[in-house]
Design goal:
The chain has about 500 residues and is α+β, with helices and mostly antiparallel strands. The protein has 16 helices and 19 strands. Strand 14, helix 12 and strand 15 form a beta-alpha-beta unit.
């Protein structure tokens, strides 16, 4: 048996050893989450766990509107400088502590000011948090901020128990306490995270499982094998090439949703010595690499045509997509001409990729395309959190980044490119780009706001700090007996309302 098959068989046997407990939902995900604290988290794997562990002030609907969760209503002041939230009555944290307006204020202040918080940029416009009464909290803004509600539908809106967080301090991520449908039980790194039903959950009738076990499995083939064998009930991020296998299996179901997330090649422009290379210092060289790329071929070869080729942070049908900058086709002659103009006809670029089959396959296709233009791509394969640590310290020339996407356009562009973003690993920070972002955040009129983000696109297309490649279609496979699962464009799995026959 070959080494690859041996690895698959071993992983299968390890997972097969765990028998399913009554009322247990077993979820297979693509990456091991980072620290399980909403103030610290930065990975999609973490968001998949938080979906069961930590409710948010508001949630995202399949149509990209916002739905009540911990807040039942919200209203903007006429001048856009205050957002008032009405909180759900009778909510308790998983340690029995009540979730009041004071607890919400404590959480938001922690996200705004704690030294360890990476949520500061998302709440930068909030100048004060006021408790109006036990069920009402008002966020006072220094300037209008249209993306704020979207931020509160993600980690900046997740409420944790102040009592537990103060008791555990910086170790809170080892035993997080929130107000979601399931309570944290244990975590074994790279193996599993176990959560048990929280009896005091405010929406308990919608929860039909006693336990949720989340298993990070980087290899999508292994995830599918364990689903087929009954060791998992639902898997996230199915390899698109395996969609046909799922459709042909009467025991399985395939569910997809065109996602808000995207992938791109992120360049190190100024984060230490690794940025001192032709790609980090000259936009013409980055533009040459883009000209060597055929996004449609990547989608056909690696994604079985299921993804959406794109060169911007927003989908082509979004009002925030700049139609004056369409998705370019491949142009090898232009690629070579740009390299010659820059004086580097045979540059070398190291590209960090995650140890997931899709990212590695994309890297290999990019490598072959770049070679035809005279560009040598050296692939550096690593685990997701290892790659993040390397990029944070500037140990990269370029990297394939995957963003899960948000309903508001600001978060999609700011996450990697805003000057104050903790994930701006490449240190891209031109003044005109920051000014355009600020205009878009402060504008509430949809048409004028779209024009502001068209300006944002024009600037990052000029500088090309990231070569955007495609929008990710969320592809799930699950047991035919799993009912009630609804795919949302954010790619998360919401257990409420799901049952397993």
């Amino acid at each position: 048996m070959g080494a690859g098959r041996t690895g698959l068989a071993l992983a299968f046997m390890l997972l097969a050893g765990a028998a399913q407990a009554a009322g247990t939902l077993r979820i297979g995900i693509q990456e091991d989450p980072d620290r399980l604290d909403p103030a610290l988290g930065g990975t999609f794997g973490g968001r998949l766990v938080f979906a069961e562990l930590c409710d948010k002030l508001v949630d995202l609907k399949p149509d990209l509107g916002f739905a009540p969760q911990l807040a039942t209503a919200w209203a903007w002041s006429p001048d856009g400088l205050a957002l008032t939230l009405t909180l759900r009555d009778g909510v308790t944290f998983q340690d029995g502590e009540p979730m009041t307006a004071e607890a919400v204020k404590w959480n938001l202040e922690r996200y705004r000011s704690a030294p360890e918080s990476v949520r500061k940029a998302e709440l930068k416009s909030v100048s004060a948090v006021e408790v109006v009464d036990p069920r009402t909290v008002r966020l006072v803004l220094s300037q209008p901020n249209a993306p704020l509600l979207a931020a509160l539908s993600d980690r900046a809106g997740m409420m944790v128990s102040p009592k537990a967080a103060e008791r555990l301090g910086k170790e809170f991520f080892t035993a997080p306490v929130c107000s979601g449908p399931f309570s944290f039980v244990e975590r074994v790194a790279l193996d599993h995270i176990t959560m048990d039903r929280f009896p005091g959950y405010w929406n308990a009738p919608a929860v039909h499982f006693d336990r949720v076990v989340v298993r990070p499995i980087a290899n999508s083939t292994v995830r599918l094998v364990n689903l087929q064998s009954g060791q998992l009930d639902i898997v996230q991020d199915l390899a698109p090439q395996d969609a046909g296998k799922v459709r042909a299996d009467p025991k399985l179901r395939l569910t997809t949703a065109t996602g808000l997330g995207y992938a791109g090649i992120n360049f190190n422009l100024g984060n230490g010595d690794a940025s001192k290379n032709p790609f980090g210092q000259d936009a013409r060289v980055r533009r040459a690499l883009q000209a060597a790329i055929d996004r449609n071929v990547i989608n056909t070869v690696v994604m079985d045509g299921l993804f959406v080729p794109d060169n911007q942070t927003e989908l082509p049908n979004s009002p925030y997509f700049n139609p004056q900058i369409p998705v370019p086709g491949r142009d090898l002659a232009r690629a070579k001409a740009l390299l010659k103009e820059a004086g580097v006809e045979h540059p070398v670029l190291s590209l960090r990729v995650q140890n997931a089959p899709r990212d590695q396959q994309v890297g290999e296709v990019l490598q072959a395309m770049a070679a035809e233009a005279g560009i040598e791509l050296k692939l550096l394969v690593g685990e997701a959190n290892t790659n993040i640590e390397a990029m944070t310290r500037g140990d990269f020339q370029s990297s394939i980044v995957n963003w899960s996407g948000r309903a508001d356009p600001d978060a999609n562009v700011s996450i990697y490119l805003a000057c104050d973003s903790f994930q701006n690993w490449g240190k891209y920070c031109p003044a005109d780009f920051g000014a355009a972002l600020a205009r878009g955040r402060a504008e509430t009129d949809p048409a004028r706001r779209a024009a502001d983000y068209h300006d944002v696109v024009s600037i990052y297309d000029r500088d090309m700090p990231i070569i955007f490649l495609y929008h990710i279609t969320a592809v799930f496979a699950h047991a035919a007996g799993l009912k009630g699962f609804v795919a949302v464009p954010d790619g998360l799995i919401r257990v409420q309302g799901m049952t397993l026959e």
